[in-house]
């Protein structure tokens, strides 16, 4: 399975990514997690990424594309993968098409989690208290939402036109959302 999990900040991508990846026996690849790991280890990539992340902006495409390409090339991603937080720009979509096409495979599905805007803000403010992420302040949350609408929301139409988009209601209990995703994905043919 080659899957993408999309949704606005706070939609529950990270939470669901782990369950879905385990279900299909593929690695969950989260660009946000990889950036945060680099930030905490103080690598050059982390130093560069932190400037953007703390402002709620996207890390430049070249940096992100390069990082994802390296990760997808690893052995565990041969049978498939679930991408959480990538692609987020049209340029990243094109880049990912190239990466997958090169291996002769195809993208199986793009899952979008939809959640009410007020609920999203509540979840992020809640996470700010429990996880202490430096990008979960009110100003930065607002900026991340703007950047998502401007740069990432258009991707939904792109994948809908390809006929691989699956929209899932992300409201309610975590387990219920997981069950909805499984039901939708179990119904599609695996490549
Ligand atoms: P969120 O919970 O807001 O969806 P993530 O944990 O997925 O956030 O990502 C945190 C930050 O990492 C983003 O705000 C952005 O700065 C950076 N980032 C993650 N994925 C990408 C990407 N595909 N392209 C550019 N920047 C990214």
UniProtKB/TrEMBL annotation:
Monomer. It comes from Nocardioides furvisabuli. Belongs to the adenylate kinase family. Catalyzes the reversible transfer of the terminal phosphate group between ATP and AMP. Plays an important role in cellular energy homeostasis and in adenine nucleotide metabolism. Its main location: cytoplasm. It is found in: Cytoplasm. Residues 30-59 are annotated as: NMP. Pathway: Purine metabolism; AMP biosynthesis via salvage pathway; AMP from ADP: step 1/1. AMP binds at residues 31, 36, 57-59, 85-88, 92, 133, 144. ATP binds at residues 10-15, 127, 172. The lineage of its organism: Bacteria, Bacillati, Actinomycetota, Actinomycetes, Propionibacteriales. Its EC number is 2.7.4.3. It comes from the Bacteria. GO terms for molecular function: kinase activity. It is an enzyme of class 2 (transferase). Pfam families: ADK (PF00406). It catalyses: AMP + ATP = 2 ADP. This is Adenylate kinase. Consists of three domains, a large central CORE domain and two small peripheral domains, NMPbind and LID, which undergo movements during catalysis. The LID domain closes over the site of phosphoryl transfer upon ATP binding. Assembling and dissambling the active center during each catalytic cycle provides an effective means to prevent ATP hydrolysis.
């Amino acid at each position: 399975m080659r899957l993408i999990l999309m949704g606005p900040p706070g939609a529950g991508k990270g939470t669901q990514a782990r369950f879905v990846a385990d279900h299909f026996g593929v690695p969950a690849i989260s660009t946000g997690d990889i950036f945060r790991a680099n930030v905490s280890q103080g690598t050059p990539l982390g130093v560069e990424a932190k400037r953007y992340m703390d402002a709620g902006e996207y890390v430049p495409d070249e940096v992100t594309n390069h990082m994802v390409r390296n990760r997808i090339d690893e052995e565990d991603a041969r049978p498939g993968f679930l991408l959480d937080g990538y692609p987020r720009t049209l340029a990243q979509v094109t880049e990912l098409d190239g990466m997958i096409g090169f291996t002769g495979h195809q993208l199986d599905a793009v899952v979008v989690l939809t959640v009410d805007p007020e609920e999203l803000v509540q979840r992020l403010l809640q996470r700010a208290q429990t996880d202490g992420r430096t990008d979960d302040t009110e100003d930065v949350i607002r900026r991340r939402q703007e950047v998502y609408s401007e740069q990432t929301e258009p991707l939904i139409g792109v994948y809908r036109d390809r006929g691989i988009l699956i929209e899932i209601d992300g409201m309610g209990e975590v387990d219920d959302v997981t069950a909805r995703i499984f039901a939708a994905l179990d119904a599609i043919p695996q490549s």
